[in-house]
Amino acid sequence: MSSPRSGFRKSAVALAGLSITALALAGCAAGGSGSSSGASGTIVIGTTDKVTTLDPAGSYDNGSFAVMNQVFPFLLNTPYNSPDVEPDIAESAEFTSPTEYTVKLKKGLKWANGNDLTSSDVKFSFDRQLAIADENGPSSLLGNLEKTDAPDDLTVVFTLKTENDQTFPQVLSSPVGPIVDEDVFSATEVTPDNDIVKGKAFAGQYTIDSYKFNELISYKKYADYQGLLGEAKNDTVNVKYYTDESNLKLDVKQGNIDVASRSLSATDIEDLKKDKNVKVVDGPGGEIRYFVFNFDTMPYGATTADADPAKALAVRQAAADLIDRAAIAKDVYKDTYTPLYSYVPAGLTGATESLKGLYGDGDGGPDAAKAKETLEAAGVTVPVALNLQYNGDHYGSGSGDEYALIKDQLEADGLFTVNLQQTEWVQYAKDRTTDVYPAYQLGWFPDYSDADNYLSPFFATDNFLANHYDNPAVNDLINEQRSTTDADARTKLIEQIQDTEAADLSTIPLLQGAQVAVVGKDVEGTVLDASFKFRYAPITKG
């Protein structure tokens, strides 16, 4: 396989320096590892995250991808503790021409239902992503894919629209990359979870043995997995879904679970750090938090009665002038997050602070006088009525305090009147893509360790946000940087995209931070990357 160029490797290594906190719980948990040996044993994991759907074409969120990583095969994958992609169920993968990426599969691959896993399944998987193009799916990551061919059972040829796509190998390891069984999945519609589980359409390290939507998933080791990650460490992994962080924290303290992740509040983490039975472990992260403007339905948006693009821009600019990121990071998240002044987080090659000098006081702080002047110059009547939506179960209970503070910041000087609402995640994921919310909260974990993954999904034409933002100049720059092989030239393009976006403000970046997990003392393995793959096992007792 052709390795990533130095610019990409630098990006990935830089990302590995971002902070992620893991808390190791000292008490004996419910997994009961005392009698375990080798790869046997059961791990119990607790999470407040949610699954949207098990179908890779219908979801683009951490909760769903955390499941997909365990049960679906990938052509390329990232080994534990590494940012670089390597062949997974592929034998080899390389560019065979500037616009052709050729993958050779390993021989004898099987689905858990006994079906052969061939190049036909691979072609089917990528064809259906583009055909379905679900608004909550990751098909936007395939913006440079022209077509997929399967000339024989073991060969897949991806034809790309632009040459030398520096991100495509990593895209194959991303949420758009899971391979699915063409005999179980629909070619044109998102396949229901129960059909996937019933069809045993799995070929990752684990299969799903039993499934109760957003309540409990029981995984079993898949003995015929032939991929990069090797044999699973556990015979069984049970994942319990919590609706409330306080209940998750209680089970952490009582030793009822082996691992807890996504999410404990900043206050809970601060409290657990004082517990003598808890230790803190650091590793890489890359999460960002931001909110989105819908260019059709926001104040003065394209489909509103008083549509006016200049006034709509002034509203976005004034909001950016009033946001105090440092206060949000400190007061809400106890500095477990840091202020984010651009779209690419600090630590990645090409990251800038494009918004810092443009808005507020020019040094990261708010400036109400500047916001007022911007609105007056555009002829905007104040206060501006802004409907702002957020979600508390997917992004954690801190979201309530975060958006209450944002509401206070926007309203403090009488320039905005904010109608703040929250919605449960499964409904939220549907509503945000159907123009229900004029402005709304989102968060992001990277699909791959490159600045492009913080740009293409959000700002390319037909982007994941579905917020009706479309700047052809930005789209051209995104395509150009993706195919630029010179690292310095590519970095300049990435910086230019951020500068242009800072002027357009289709989203307002707020914070960057990390994941948090709690790991029991009788469990080996810690959270060292953001891939969501199970890497925990009971400590062998001899």
TrEMBL record:
Signal peptide feature range: 1-26
Domain (Solute-binding protein family) spans 85-463
Q: Give the location in the cell.
A: Cell envelope
InterPro entries assigned to the protein according to its UniProt record, in alphabetical order: Peptide/Ni-bd (IPR030678), SBP_5 (IPR039424), SBP_5_dom (IPR000914)
Write out the entry's keywords from A to Z: Signal, Transport
The record, for Pfam families, names: SBP_bac_5 (PF00496)
Query: Which top-rank group of organisms is this from?
Result: Bacteria
Tell me which family the UniProt entry assigns to this protein. Belongs to the bacterial solute-binding protein 5 family.
What's the protein called, per UniProt?
Peptide/nickel transport system substrate-binding protein
Give the originating organism: Plantibacter elymi
